[in-house]
Each structure stands twice: as structure tokens, then as C-alpha cells.
Design a protein that fits this description.
Length: 194
């Protein structure tokens, strides 16, 4: 059994490459991107979505805002960490249409099994890139890294997590696919239909 974990979903970005559309509210199939991510983390003790409250089919979600609103992913992590209590927290982007519960549990289990030498279990996409917003983190080292940064607003996520000891977990099911552009979204919809 996986160690208990909490989840933070940063969902307050400006979606500039989508012309400012409400990215988490966009749909693949009949389901919003946000609801797809929330379904994948249904096993979490606490789920925090950082961004404007939106309609969702999932109950028990805690909503908060980063300071300032739109302050970026590190500001979102700072806001979310104030509401989580588990020793493990997953950071999951709000635009992952193919994220599934198996992958979420796999990341949490990988970190648990790695022991104290790993601070994070990060999904690695097919191109070999770490996906820090599809990852499990030990809460204490993540809090320490955040405290060392100072003001989180506008900070890049890699500056927050770059110094953590990472276990890299292969994305064998291509669930790290995210929707940053209209083309990405259309490809996700085509993949869903096939």
C-alpha cells in the first residue's frame, strides 16, 4: 500500500499560448482537463487546487489562490503547501488529459520505496525531460527549498525543485502529455477518440 499523500494542482496560470483561455476548464472527450487530473488523484488524503474556483465533479477539493494571483507555479506551491499535512505531496499540472491513478500511485510508491536518499520521484517523458509537475515530493525538503527561495512570486519551478535529490521514473504510458497550445489540445482529443 502506498504511503498517504496529498496533492497540489497549480491551476492559476494565464494560458498565454491558448490566448488566455481557461485551460483547466477545456475538455478532452466530455471531461475537463482539471476533472481528469482530479480523477487520477482520487486516492489523495487532501487535494488542493490553486487557482480560481471552478465547477468540478469531484467533492472535497480545497481551493486557494497563489499570491499574487497569477504569480506562477512556485507561488502556487507556496499557497498549496499551507493546506497539506502528509509527508508526501504530489505536484500535478492541471492540463494532463491522460494522467491516471496508476501513475499517481506509482510516483508515490517510488518515492516511498526510494527511502530517505530521494526527495522526489519525477516522471520523465519520452523525450527524456523531467516533468516537475508530474512528480511526488517529500514535503519537508520541498518546504525547506521554498523557504530558501524567498519571495515565490515569479520564480521558475526548476529553481525550487532543481536542488532536490530526484528519482527519475519513466513515463511508460505517455501520461505526461500536456496541453499548452490549441494544437496540443486537438492532438489530445484525437488520441482520446482513437
Amino acid at each position: 500500500m502506498t504511503t498517504p499523500y496529498d496533492v497540489i494542482v497549480p491551476a492559476g496560470g494565464a494560458a498565454r499560448r491558448l490566448g488566455g483561455a481557461d485551460k483547466p476548464g477545456l475538455t478532452v472527450g466530455e471531461t475537463t482537463l482539471l476533472d481528469r487530473v482530479l480523477a487520477a488523484c482520487a486516492g489523495a488524503r487532501t487535494t488542493v487546487v490553486v487557482g480560481p474556483a471552478r465547477p468540478t465533479t469531484h467533492q472535497g477539493v480545497h481551493w486557494t489562490r497563489e499570491q499574487p494571483p497569477g504569480g506562477g507555479p512556485v507561488a502556487a506551491v507556496a499557497a498549496g503547501l499551507g493546506l497539506v499535512t502528509a509527508d508526501t505531496v504530489l505536484l500535478l499540472a492541471a492540463d494532463l488529459p491522460f494522467l491516471d491513478r496508476r501513475t499517481v500511485e506509482r510516483l508515490a510508491s517510488a518515492l516511498d520505496e526510494a527511502g530517505p536518499h530521494a526527495d522526489a520521484a519525477v516522471l520523465v517523458d519520452a523525450g527524456g525531460r523531467d516533468q516537475p509537475l508530474t512528480a511526488a515530493y517529500r514535503t519537508a525538503p520541498l518546504r525547506a527549498a521554498l523557504a530558501a527561495l524567498g519571495d515565490p512570486a515569479g520564480q521558475p519551478l526548476r529553481r525550487l525543485v532543481g536542488g532536490l535529490n530526484r528519482l527519475r521514473v519513466a513515463d511508460t504510458d505517455n501520461v505526461a502529455y500536456d496541453c499548452d497550445t490549441w494544437e496540443d489540445l486537438e492532438q489530445a482529443r484525437e488520441r482520446e477518440r482513437s
